[in-house]
Amino acid sequence: MQNRNRMLAAGLVCCTLALFSSANAESNISDVDMVRLQAYIAGMNRASHTYSGQLAVGMELPAQGMTYYEIPAEYKARDTHYTVVNGRPVLVDSQTRKVMHIMQ
Length: 104
Description:
104 residues, 4-stranded antiparallel sheet
C-alpha cells in the first residue's frame, strides 16, 4: 500500500511539473524569472490593445497598431518583448512578433 501511494504521489508531481513547464515551453524565461516578470509588467500598468482574433501561442501579432515594450535584462528574457492584448500581458519574439507566452 505504501509503495502504491508513493508511486501515485510521484506521478502527481511529475504531471504537475510537466504542465507548469509546458506553459513556458515557448519562452526562454525560467519559472522564477517569469513570476518576477509578471509582477514587473503588472506594475507598469500599460494600456491594453484590442485584438479581435483568437489569441494563441505561436501566432504572429501585427506590426502596426500595437506597442511592444522591451524587457529589462534582469529578467533574462532574451529576444523577447511584451505587449498587453485584451487585458492580458503577452510575451512576443522581438523579431517576429510571434506570441511566446500569454500571461494570466
